Each structure stands twice: as C-alpha cells, then as structure tokens.
DNA sequence: TCTTTTACTTGCGTTTTGCAATTTAAATTG
DNA sequence: CAATTTAAATTGCAAAACGCAAGTAAAAGA
C-alpha cells in the first residue's frame, strides 16, 4: 500500500541502502568476495550480529542478494549477489572516488581512483570477473 | 578521537551520507536548485523540520554545503553546494540509473538513464551548468 | 559423546526518529 | 507603529532503531 515515500529514484535507493551498514555488507560481498555470515561479521567496522542478520534479510527481500544453504555444510548460509546487487558496482566506485577526493582520512591510492576515472566500464568488468573467479573457486 | 570506524572510502561515505534523509537534501539542492530551509522542507517525502535542521548542520560540518544569511532577508538562510557537494553529482546519477534498472516503482524515463549511460560526463556538466544558472538568477 | 562452529535470537539500556506544537527573530501589512 | 505573517529552528514525548553482551539451536568435527 503506502509503501514508498515517493517515486523518486534517489528516494528508492535511500529506502533500501540508506543506513550505516547496508552498503558495507554489499561492499564486502563485491570487493572482498565474502559470502558467509561469519566472514561478513568480521568487517573492520564491527557490525553486531543482530544487525547483520537484519541487513542480510532486508537485502534478500529487496532482491540484491540471495541466500542458500551451503551444499557441503548445512550450518552455513551462502550469500551471493543477484544481477541487481552487481548493478551496485558503479555506485560503489563513484562513492570510492568521491570519498578519496573529499578527504585524506581514507586509504585509497591515487592510482586506483585514476584508473576508475579513466575507464569506468573496464573497472566494473574487472571487479565482476574477479567475483566470478572467486565464486567458481568456492564452488566444489 | 576514535572518530571513524575505518579508513575505507565506502565507510567514509556511509558515515556522512548513510541515513534516510541526507541524500534527499542533496538531491533537492542539486536537481531542483533548492537553497532555503522552507523549499527543502517541502520535499515530497515529507521531512520533519527538526531532522532537516540536523541534516543541514551535518552537511555543513562535513563540508558538503555552505550556509549564509540571505543578503536581502535576514530571516533566510541560503544554502549552497561546495565543490565537494557538487562532487556528488556522479554518485546521484549512478543511484538514479541503478534504481531505474532495479524497479518499476520509480519515475524516470528510459530516455534520461539512456542519456546518462551514453555520456556521463556530459550529464554531469549539464547539471552543473543548470545549477550555475539558477544561482546567478537567485543572486540580486 | 563432547566440543566447536555457524547462524541466529534475546534482553535491555541508549540513541535516533517522527510528529505536533511552540518559539524567536525579522519582514510585511494595514 | 501595532498586528500579522514568514523563515528557521527548538522542544517534548512516544515509538522505533541501534549497540552490546549473552544465550540458543543445529550441524560438524574430534
């Protein structure tokens, strides 16, 4: 029903991603190829387990990730990015470039942002390929 | 002291922009050339005035906007984007494209996202120019 | 069987939000 | 110039979200 505050695309993005943790979970899945609860719970910012559970559920509910029971270990849940989740790569890259330009409180080499600025599409493809590799290694 | 949770650029962005309102304030300043409290308080999502005050203060504190008393009306505060604030244009454009691709619950024509995808830099320049025009009209 | 691992869940105090009403100061109007 | 209107911000309070530590359930490993 009165589900959304408006039909503005930025509002839509903010309703899904707008908090202190959601994008960090996505970051770890995209840039660090993490795919389990325990790996994600070790992110350097220190997310609490109840919050992580909640964010993973929300991300699944909004179609950004998929959750499945690991085929080798029934305790494990395997989280993977959907097409829409992978679609966030350009957003994260822009945020990275912005932060790097905005502050020196951040660890990104100039070489990295330079590369992104020079050829964004190539940077996106590179990350997608790295992820594909990681997930094929993870698969038995 | 222990100011930031990490030195990751995405974390930095999230610490500044990661909530339900901040990016909507920036959106209205960038895309709708709004520059006063009352204009911003009328955004379609319905922001409360205490929240708006808080977000404007935070945005100023993090160097994304500047606040000054209007030269013609001492009740008015005039908000303007800094260089760093304008640097968020590419981020907002990527979020717009992502939302448009992610859901149909959003009002963006395909023409708009197509244009952005075809030539991002041109889209950024166009928005910057439009803003420059609006602010020069606003100036006495 | 006993221990460890993985993914949650619970309880509880703190913080942030949302909403309506109110306040302050400055401009406008009659 | 007194009364009204406007712009920005503040206050009070209930509801929701968060942060942390501890606890639980189920499966795996020793």
Give the percentage of residues in beta strands of chain A: 5-15%
Which assembly state applies to the chains in this document?
homodimer
Number of helices of chain A: 8
Summarize the helix and strand pattern of chain A as letters: HHHHEEHHHH
Mean pLDDT of chain A: 94
Query: Segments of chain A where pLDDT lies below 50 for 5+ residues?
Result: none
Shape call of chain A: globular
Helix residue percentage of chain A: 55-70%
- Helix-strand makeup class of chain A: mainly alpha
Q: Can you summarize the main beta sheet of chain A?
A: 2 strands, antiparallel
Identify the biggest protein-protein contact and residues per side. Answer: A-B, 46 and 45 residues
Q: What Rg of chain A is obtained from the alpha carbons, in whole angstroms?
A: 16 Å
Give the CA-CA distance, first to last residue of chain A.
43 Å
